[in-house]
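Model it.
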Amino acid sequence: MPLYEHVFLARQDLAQAQVDVLAETATKIVESQQGKVTKVENWGLRNLAYKIAKNRKAHYVLLNIDAPAGTVAELERQTAINEDVIRYMTVRVDELEGGPSVIMRKSDRGERGDRGPRGPRGDREDRGPRRERDEAFGE
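Modeled.
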């Protein structure tokens, strides 16, 4: 069967228990259509890049699905009807990711520990002492 990743965003004013119920409802829809949900990840309440339906934040939930295309069509139809879901997206993938997703691993990183050097303009030492620069430009 084809493999899918389904992510939906729930309104910010919902409690975590209500978001869990939405994920369970999606799981039941898939299972009633002879599909399987292999993983459910709750990414928590996160900031949105822009306002969506007067919401600045949303609860993000990821479902890994192993189901026929008709099942995904029914899941998307039910999700679109639900007023608590403000956005959703389903993507067909070649293989489902084992373990935690990239978003969950990202939160495990340190503040700046995994990032590389800041670059030539970010490091003051690369630019030379200020007095020498000012003299070179006649200031």
